[in-house]
User: Fold these one by one.
Assistant:
Number 1:
Amino acid sequence: MSVARLDQHRKRDGSHETADRDDPAVAKPPDSAPERDARRGLGERRRADKHSAAWRVGVQRRRIMLYDDLVRLNDLDPNQEAERDRLLKLLSAADKAANAPVGLRKWWWGTEIERAWACLREVEERSVDLLEPPDLHTTATDASTRGSRHLPDRDPRLGHLKRLLEGVDPEVGPSGQQIPALRSSTTQVLRRVHAVIDRANQEARYLRNRIILASTIGVIVGAFLVYLQSVITEPLVFSESLTGRDPAWQHLFAVMTLGALGALLIAIPKMTQTPADFGPFNLPLQQSILKIVVGPLTAVAGFAILSDEPLNISLPDWPSVALFAIAFGAGQEVVTQYVDRRAAKVLTSATPSDSRESTQGRRHADQPAPVDR
């Protein structure tokens, strides 16, 4: 056979192979959900993800842990196999939520965060019914520990689970009637713990949004004061002898800047504080921003009080003005202390006060990471 005819055969065979690959009838069947999740769980090289916030990493880490627990289950009957497939679909939904783009509206309402963690917690609760007795005893013990950290000691679900665990031999594990009772009690405690954590996160999100609204209003009020001073020739909070020939709005802006500096000095410790058991909403950061925004307003208010009756105090020079402006800006702590108390209550609401001392410093692995700002 000539070289030309060999080339024709090769081209014809290659065209047939290409057609076979493109033909849906002979195409390879798509990978199953467990196989796709396995590749992701084992760290297959994926398309570079633009969304790499800390809370997304926390969701992925938890999803991989739950997937590993599911694939290790053996000797499942057909009904249990079907249930495991449904749980794997929930893990896939959590993966989609963790990789979905988050716009301003979703960020404001926490849509993707709550959807991802709702799927993961549903998987954790329903997978209890698939566990073998030895694994069931371990999971029940862990649920009891988590319940002690997030639920009051008088909680009936937690008390029932503890009584069941007391009757189980750790060396043998649950048997007989203990198994269904332990499954049900473990699931109920996990649901109650998850409800407490979700409610605390929702309250933190609501408070974060209110703090952002208050900060925005503060910025608008400050900008309006500077604009008002720019159109009014008479100084609002200073005497004409102090302002001299310079525009009064420049002096007002300088005082507000110094007030923000004083507030920043007070807010720095707050910005470095992160609770031991933190959720996806970083309230200390928002609290610090609010303090910096309120500082200029308290500085202006302080000078207005000094220059008005009955005090009628006039500062002689700008060094004195700067000192008082910084002091008045730091005085925003009097205004924002209510927000600080409310935030501290929200951040610790997931751990009851009667068990907080015994659990201080321990970190709950189920908590999502702080949200991106």
Number 2:
Amino acid sequence: MRRSLFRWFSRSNDPRPRRRAQPPRTQLSVEPLEERALPAAGITAFDQAFLAQAAQTSLLGFEVASVAAARAVSSGVRQFAQGVAAGYAQALSQLTPLLTAAGVSAPVPGDIDRQLLARLAAQRGRFVDMTFLQINAQLSLSGVALYSAASAQIAALGPGIADAVNGTLPVLSQNLSSSASALSGGGYGNSPTAFLTSLSASAGQVLATIAASRPSS
């Protein structure tokens, strides 16, 4: 980036006369129609965006929970993590055919996802439990916001998407509640206090947004 700026600055301050710029040549590249992933009838841009984000969240949630299921100190947290992983696996199995029908690529872990996984992997002892509960609460809250936005216009969703929303939203809400309860009553001292305060504020904003998006009766 700095090198590009330097070159631009040098050209803009060069006293030598410039040659008249030639119009760029346009090269057309036509992709064979049969090789494109075309969405099925009734799929909208909103459907595609929702499915992509939902699959990304489910993949990360499954990987985080799988780490905690293997490394958590508390048997209760390990058992909870196993249930969370199974829930995300179920969501992914339901989303996979919908992604294909919508012409949406399968999720791939991004930089932020890898950072969260690395943060969890670096923990030791009970910090594995606490860090998992915090990450799971954050993922659950973002999932609740995402699925609630889809639920607000459920009648307009593409084929099969409404069933995925109705099936997964209650699971995410329960995951959020269970993680918050485990953090507040798990004997972690004052460490989760600031996190829970921030989580509560964020949850309040999500609930207010959900309420505002619902059509008035």
Number 3:
Amino acid sequence: MDHNDREETRQGTNDHLEAELRLLKDLLRRLNDHAGQLEEDLEAASREIKTLRRRIRSRDEEINNLYASRSWRITRPVRAVSIIARSAAGRAASLFSENPVNIPGGQTGENSQKLPKSPIKAGGRGTPHRKPGIPLTPREKEILEALGRLMEEDRYGR
């Protein structure tokens, strides 16, 4: 290999290395730009997190003030009675359904107990309707009367 061939090979290698260097510099510039964008995004996300934390603290404070308010303390018995009445209504309605009943402390789902078929069928909006010609049992009468009293008390705030 003569001197000119070696010089051409060296020049080709230099050109190739310079091209690779340009590509690497371009890649580095793009990576720096991307890193800058990621830093800006991170700063924006941090600001949003701070804002959301302030909002959460504010809402928590509002909720605590509500629970500490006189009106919340005064209406506690009314809320308790309402919860009991709704629970009793749900239990009474389940007595007249053919669906499995959830027994407190018992199982639910496939292994739950089923009540015997009732002469009362579910009507619109979950309201039980009596099948014509079938009298109420004494227990059903007692349950419906108690449920009626609870609903009246709940409705009129007695």
Number 4:
Amino acid sequence: MSVLASARERIARYRRLPYGAVEFVREQFGAEPDPWQVDALVAFADPAIRRISLQACAGPGKSTILAWCGWYFLATQATPNGHPKGLATSITAQNLRDNLWAEFAKWHANSEFLKAAFTWSPSRIAAKDHPSTWFLSPKAWPRYVWIAADLPSTATNKILKRELIGLGVAPDGRVLWKRDGIAAGTRAFRRLAVDLA
């Protein structure tokens, strides 16, 4: 039996609550989650739980659990009517690239099933047989945000980035806000210019 066929038989078991996601991690990655990671996997797999917060110091395995949850989502949530799609984000673009996305690569390399079914690249994880509809992409929080009633766009409502760049900081009453970074764990923005309108 092929690796993919064998894994398909396990997917129904992996989707079983409450510990299917934990079995997925143990079998696909050969890893034993810490007790708090078990709790996070159980919560993530439960569709009744809409939000989860991970708050901890540096180094206990937050990126690991996020990568496990992302792989669990991609590997187990396809249906006959649709493929799972999502994005992975982090507090900064550098943290996303160097920590979380690298963690996805590490665990991809540890699973024969994931290596057979998905491709990992710096810009996307995609199912080999449905790359345009079954994927996970990294997306960083924006560094700059416009507050405006309208933006330069085409007739089909596509934003014209070149025109935005050419507008500068605060033309025509628009206000540009810049993200200050991750001080105190916030995603705070500060106003770059005074709205003269």
